[in-house]
Amino acid sequence: MHTIAADITVQWRQAMLRFAMLHLPSREEAEDAVQDTLTALLLLDRASFDATQAKSYLFGILRNKINDRLRQKYRAPLNYAEAFNDDLDQVLFDKRGHWVDGVAPATWVNPQQQLQNDQFFLVVDLCVHKLPAKPARVFSMKEFLDCEADEICSTLGITKADYWQCMSRARKQLQLCLHHNWFEQERAP
């Protein structure tokens, strides 16, 4: 089990650390959460461990470790006003609310096939990490940690309006990032 654990650690540690750093305020806390997750792997019963399910197991444990830390950390209300001080809507839409030429999202040819592509997930990961910290936390808690809106609001100390605003902005920015860094690249000769 120790050699399997060592191989799994080498394979997944960096991805787990990037994921944890997105949600936790310091690198040290992220490293602690990853270390706690890897410790859980070592304590696991060999007979019940399926190495083919290592990613699901590790990220499931890591999600719980992150959620526990966030619940403890963000009990006090946070100021999210600065997350909404951008002019994203003016950049994306004209006065009538239509997409500005050149930034409208491209039609996705076959999303299921593209989602299975490892390179696509690398671009998604890069795009999520380019988001401002607050919308990135809200978006990834919803989409990656499978948290409900009420739980996210409670954990981060934000209102429902703040939650929906962060989700909207994160989706718009991810759509633009994916358009420029993935879909537009596929059409290039």
TrEMBL record:
Keywords: DNA-binding, Sigma factor, Transcription, Transcription regulation. Pfam families: Sigma70_r2 (PF04542), Sigma70_r4_2 (PF08281). Residues 124-174 form the RNA polymerase sigma factor 70 region 4 type domain. Residues 12-75 form the RNA polymerase sigma-70 region domain. InterPro entries: RNA_pol_sigma-24-rel, RNA_pol_sigma-70-like, RNA_pol_sigma-70_dom, RNA_pol_sigma70_r2, RNA_pol_sigma70_r4_t2, RNA_pol_sigma_r2, RNA_pol_sigma_r3/r4-like, WH-like_DNA-bd_sf. SUPFAM superfamilies: Sigma2 domain of RNA polymerase sigma factors (SSF88946), Sigma3 and sigma4 domains of RNA polymerase sigma factors (SSF88659). Belongs to the sigma-70 factor family. ECF subfamily. This is Sigma-70 family RNA polymerase sigma factor. It comes from Comamonas sediminis. The lineage of its organism: Bacteria, Pseudomonadati, Pseudomonadota, Betaproteobacteria, Burkholderiales.
